[in-house]
Amino acid sequence: MNQAIKVLYTGKVHTVGARENGTARSPDGRLDIKLSPPGAAGTGTNPEQLFAAGWSACFETAMSLAARKIKVALPAELAIDAEVDLGMSGAEYFLRARLNVSVPGLDLETAQAIVDTAHQTCPYSKALRGNVDVAITVSV
After folding, report:
1. What is the model's pLDDT at position 132?
2. What 3-state DSSP class applies to 66?
3. Phi/psi at 129 (nearest 5 deg)?
4. What does pLDDT average to over the chain?
5. Which of 48, 59, 105, 122 could bridge to 84 as Cys pair (CB 3.0-4.6 Å)?
6. Are strands 32-34 and 23-25 parallel, antiparallel or unpaired?
7. What is the second-level CATH architecture of the domain 47-139?
8. pLDDT digits over 39-90, tens only?
9. Taking the model in full, what pTM does it have?
10. Half-sphere exposure for 26 (CA within 13 Å, toward CB)
11. Cα–Cα distance list, 49 to 19, 54, 75 (Å)
């Protein structure tokens, strides 16, 4: 049975100049950034940093939903450090990604269960699954 898809939001950005001194702007003006290559001396950010920010923010929301379902309060000190590698194998570029999730105040078993559920439901995690090598670590 097919379910109707309800689009909740569409992020729009206009990008020119790619990584090399480019810019990316959203029509609503909330995003207006300079781009520069990873590791370069430029003043802008890069797609890997932007992806890490988006994934970690989305993942934390998915954790909140997972915790609410099992009636667990997440600590205010919850933090996610996201890392996205741009790599090369031969002549092919690839991404590799890691989340280091800190959930102080919860026991490790509960924290791991919440993270596991979030990884199954987070739209970014779903997009990465089978396409990008992902590692997630949990600390309490």
Report:
1. 97
2. helix
3. -55, 125
4. 96
5. 48
6. antiparallel
7. 2-Layer Sandwich (3.30)
8. 888 789 999 999 999 999 999 999 999 999 999 999 999 999 999 999 999 9
9. 0.93
10. 7
11. 12, 9, 25
**1-45 carries CATH number 3.20.20.220:** no
| Assigned token pair, 81 | 């450090």
Cα separation, 114 vs 2, in Å, equals 29
3-state secondary structure of 25: strand
Is 130 buried (19+), middle (13-18) or exposed (0-12) by CB count in 10 A?
exposed
Contact (Cβ atoms closer than 8 angstroms) between residue 70 and residue 106: no
For every residue of 50-68, DSSP letters joined together read HHHHHHHHHHHHHHHHHHH
pLDDT, one tens digit per residue, over 81-124 is 999 999 999 999 999 999 999 999 999 999 999 999 999 999 99
